[in-house]
C-alpha cells in the first residue's frame, strides 16, 4: 500500500519516523513518499521528496521572505500527490503548509489523516471550518484536545504523547550524575540549574540574557546552558559565560536541581524528567505587546504541563484561580513569566522557592505525577497511529 507523509520541521520528522517504523512492521511492502528529514529517511529507506530544512520557515515575515521557495515546495508536493495517488496522506503538524496540501488531496479523493493536531485551541480557531471539510482522521498527542475539538464538530482521538516514550527511553539509558558532570567538565559539588533558552536564534537572543541574570543571583547553584544542535557555541557566548552542553538537553534537565525553560516542548520534557522549573518567554518588552499576546491567545496558560493538568478554556480560569487561592497556588503547576513581565526580578521570585525543600517544590513535583497519569496510554503514540492508518488503508483497499 502507498503512504504519503508531510512533515515540515525537525520535531515532525522525528514523530513521523516513529509512525513509519511501526507501519513497515505492519505492512512490509509499504511504499512511502515523504516530505521530511533524516529520521524519516532512515525508516523509509530513501531520501525525502523535499527535506524539511528547505521548508522550515516560521512566522509571517520568514514565510514572506521565502515565498517563491514555499510555493515551489507546495507545487512539487501537489504534483507528487497527483502522480502517485497514495492510499492516504498523513500530515504531521506544520499547519500552514499542510492545510493547503490536505485541501488539495481531498480534491483528488485521497483520504487525509492528521497526526499532532494543530493548536487551534490557542489561536486561529477560524481554521476549524476549513479543517472539517477535508480531514478524515485527527490524532492528538494532548489529552484535552478530543473534548475541545469535539465540542466544535471535529472528531479527534488522543493516541498518547511521544515525548513520554522519548523521555523515558533517554532516562533509562542515563548514567549517574557523577558521570554526566565528569563527561561535561562540570563542578561535581554544586547542584545544577539548567538554562534552556530555546532552539531558535531569536529565542536564545531574548531569553538567555534574562536567564543568565537570574542564575547569577544564585552562586550556590551551577548554571549550565542547554545548547541546541543547530546553534554554534560561539553564539551563546554573546550572552553568557556559563558552560554550554550541546545536544544533551534532556540529560541536562534530568540531572538538574531546577531549570529555567523557554515555553515549548522543553517544558513538557523537563516535567517528565522531574526537574522543577519556571517557564520564561521574553519577547518585545512592552506592556501593550503582552496585552495583545494574551488577547490573541485563547487559553489561560502557555506551557504544555499547565495546559494538560489545568482548565483549557479561558472561561474556566476564574474558577481555577478561586480554587488556587485557597491552596496558595496560581492555578498552574509551573509558574509562567511572559513577555514584558519576564525580567530577572520576577523570574527569580518564582525560581527561589523551588530551590529548597519547600511546599512550592513539592507541589510542582506532585503536579508532574498528575501530568504523567493524564498522558498515559497502553501503547506508544507512534504505534497507535500506525495501527489506525494501516487498518483504515487496508479497509479502503479491500
Overview in brief:
Helices cover 49% and strands 14% of the residues.
Describe the structure.
Strand 4, helix 5 and strand 5 form a beta-alpha-beta unit. The longest helix has 18 residues. Helices cover 49% and strands 14% of the residues. It is α/β, with parallel strands linked by helices. The strands form two sheets. A seven-stranded parallel beta sheet has the order 3-2-1-4-5-6-7, sandwiched between helices. Strands 10-9-8-11-12-13 form a six-stranded parallel beta sheet, with helices on both faces. About 4% of the residues have low confidence.
The main sheet comes to: 7 strands, parallel
**Number of E strands:** 13
- The rough form would be described as globular
**Average residue-wise pLDDT:** 88
Please report the distance between the alpha carbons of the first and last residues. Answer: 11 Å
SSE layout and pairings?
Layout: E1 2-7, H1 10-26, E2 31-36, H2 38-44, E3 50-51, H3 59-65, H4 67-84, E4 88-92, H5 95-107, E5 112-115, H6 127-134, E6 137-140, H7 145-150, E7 157-158, H8 162-172, H9 177-183, E8 192-196, H10 201-215, E9 222-227, H11 233-236, E10 244-246, H12 249-254, E11 258-262, H13 265-273, E12 277-281, H14 287-296, H15 304-309, H16 317-327, E13 336-338, H17 344-351, H18 359-375, H19 381-397
Parallel strand pairs: 1-2, 1-4, 2-3, 4-5, 5-6, 6-7, 8-9, 8-11, 9-10, 11-12, 12-13
Amino acid at each position: 500500500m502507498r503512504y504519503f507523509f508531510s512533515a515540515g520541521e525537525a520535531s515532525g520528522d522525528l514523530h513521523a519516523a516513529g509512525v513509519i517504523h511501526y507501519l513497515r512492521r505492519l505492512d512490509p511492502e509499504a511504499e512511502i513518499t515523504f516530505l521530511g528529514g533524516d529520521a524519516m529517511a532512515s525508516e523509509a529507506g530513501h531520501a525525502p521528496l523535499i527535506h524539511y530544512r528547505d521548508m522550515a520557515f516560521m512566522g509571517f515575515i520568514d514565510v514572506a521572505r521565502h515565498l517563491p521557495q514555499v510555493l515551489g515546495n507546495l507545487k512539487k508536493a501537489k504534483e507528487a500527490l497527483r502522480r502517485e495517488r497514495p492510499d492516504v496522506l498523513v500530515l504531521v503538524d506544520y499547519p500552514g503548509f499542510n492545510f493547503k496540501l490536505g485541501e488539495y488531496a481531498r480534491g483528488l479523493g485521497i483520504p487525509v489523516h492528521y497526526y499532532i493536531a494543530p493548536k487551534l485551541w490557542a489561536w486561529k480557531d477560524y481554521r476549524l471550518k476549513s479543517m472539517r471539510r477535508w480531514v478524515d482522521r485527527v490524532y492528538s498527542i494532548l489529552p484535552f484536545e478530543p473534548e475541545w475539538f469535539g465540542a466544535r464538530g471535529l472528531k479527534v482521538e488522543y493516541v498518547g504523547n511521544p515525548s513520554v516514550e522519548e523521555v523515558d527511553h533517554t532516562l533509562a539509558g542515563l548514567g549517574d550524575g557523577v558521570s554526566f558532570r565528569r563527561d561535561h567538565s562540570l563542578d561535581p559539588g554544586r547542584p545544577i540549574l539548567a538554562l534552556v533558552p530555546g532552539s531558535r536564534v531569536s529565542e536564545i537572543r531574548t531569553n538567555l540574557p534574562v536567564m543568565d541574570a537570574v542564575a547569577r543571583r544564585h552562586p550556590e547553584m551551577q548554571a549550565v546552558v542547554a545548547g541546541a544542535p543547530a546553534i554554534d557555541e560561539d553564539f551563546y557566548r554573546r550572552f553568557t559565560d556559563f558552560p554550554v552542553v550541546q545536544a544533551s538537553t534532556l540529560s541536562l534537565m534530568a540531572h538538574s536541581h531546577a531549570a529555567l525553560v523557554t515555553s515549548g516542548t522543553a517544558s513538557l520534557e523537563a516535567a517528565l524528567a522531574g526537574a522543577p522549573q519556571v517557564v520564561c518567554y521574553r519577547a518585545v518588552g512592552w506592556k501593550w505587546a503582552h496585552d495583545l499576546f494574551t488577547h490573541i491567545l485563547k487559553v489561560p496558560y502557555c506551557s504544555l504541563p499547565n495546559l494538560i493538568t489545568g482548565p483549557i478554556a479561558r472561561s474556566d480560569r476564574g474558577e481555577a484561580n478561586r480554587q488556587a487561592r485557597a491552596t496558595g497556588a496560581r492555578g498552574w503547576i509551573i509558574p509562567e513569566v511572559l513577555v514584558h513581565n519576564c525580567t530577572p526580578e520576577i523570574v527569580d521570585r518564582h525560581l527561589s522557592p523551588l530551590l529548597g525543600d519547600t511546599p512550592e517544590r513539592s507541589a510542582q513535583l506532585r503536579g508532574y505525577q498528575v501530568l504523567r497519569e493524564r498522558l498515559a496510554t497502553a501503547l506508544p503514540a507512534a504505534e497507535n497511529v500506525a495501527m489506525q492508518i494501516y487498518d483504515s488503508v487496508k479497509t479502503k483497499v479491500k
